[in-house]
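Input record, target 12 of the design panel.
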């Protein structure tokens, strides 16, 4: 991939661009889409295929918390599994532990 054309914007940059009339999104067309139209587009999008049938009804918004650096020993197969899915594997391990913690708290109530 040629990184020469990749740009990054902060949320503030985007809000500023929208305020300056640089929002080129056709919101009338977006707002006119039905749920069936959106689902059809998702099913046609190869980037969405592995996520299409996930039940998102129990998904929770997770905001980053301050991290504490520690040293931990994990089984090789666990580390290999998380690393095999690419960058951010430590964040995914943290998410699994967070889910476990939340379930333990829920069960002890």
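The sequence produced for target 12 reads:
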């Amino acid at each position: 991939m040629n990184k020469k054309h990749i740009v990054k914007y902060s949320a503030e940059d985007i809000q500023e661009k929208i305020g300056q009339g640089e929002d080129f999104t056709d919101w009338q067309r977006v707002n006119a889409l039905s749920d069936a139209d959106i689902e059809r587009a998702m099913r046609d999008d190869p980037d969405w295929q592995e996520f299409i049938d996930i039940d998102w009804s129990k998904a929770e918004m997770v905001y980053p918390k301050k991290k504490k650096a520690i040293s931990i020993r994990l089984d090789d197969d666990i580390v290999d599994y998380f690393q095999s899915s690419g960058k951010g594997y430590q964040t995914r391990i943290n998410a699994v532990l967070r889910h476990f913690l939340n379930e333990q708290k829920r069960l002890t109530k």
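The radius of gyration is 20 Å.
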